[in-house]
Amino acid sequence: xAGTKRKSAKEGQEQEAERGSNASSGSSKRIKESETSEQxxxxxxxxxxxxxxxxxxxxxxxxxxASAHRTIQMVSANRSLTYQFQTINTMLHRAKGHxxxxxxxxxxxxxxxxxxxxxxxxxxxxxxxxxxxxxxxARYLKYVDEHTHYSDKEWQASKSWAERYVxxxxxxxxxxxxxxxxxxxxxxxxxxxxxxxxxxxxxxxRDAWQQEDLWADISKRIPSGTHLKMLLYxxxxxGNV
Length: 241
Known about the structure:
- By secondary structure, the chain is mainly α.
- It has helices at 2-48, 65-78, 81-97, 103-117, 119-125, 134-138, 152-167, 189-200, 211-214, 225-232, and strands spanning 215-217, 222-223.
- A two-stranded antiparallel sheet has the order 1-2.
- The protein starts with a helix and ends in a 9-residue tail after the last helix.
- 19% of the residues are buried.
- Residues 1-60 are annotated as: Disordered.
């Protein structure tokens, strides 16, 4: 009897250990499932949702070839090349990753792919206006009110852009910040900056600029009106000033 009891006790211990093992296995399985679910949630969030819906351009689609062409045309109208890439590349991955691809979705993929493949050449074709740091732009804001030979509206627009740039948080991007928060189809800060600088900055070598063109008083580092306009858009032909 004693042997039988010892055997029963041993069996009980083994059964308890087995239950513990199963519980541990079940717990590990739940953790793995939870981790997988979290990874899938992040992936879905990245590809299928808008992180900034109030400023996102609406009407983009990958449902068919016509929608793909319309999306590219829509996003290319006023938004920066950076934003164009963000949107079109996202459309491409959403179409590729769609669990139930229709013939229309399949037709949209090569259209988006062709644009994405041409992105680097598009970027290389743009003029380069190296960004000045925020603190350098901030130091020139005080000179805006001294220039009255331009229309007030023009100067206020330049000043407003500079103030918004200086106030941007570290993770905020020009391409994702709208000039008019109520108009996602309009310009963002990056596309507006490029358009203005492309209009006001002659496409000439740096050494073609004369000091008198850039400074009202070079000893005091007071910029000319033309130079100040560039500075307010975070650019100078001289580089860092």
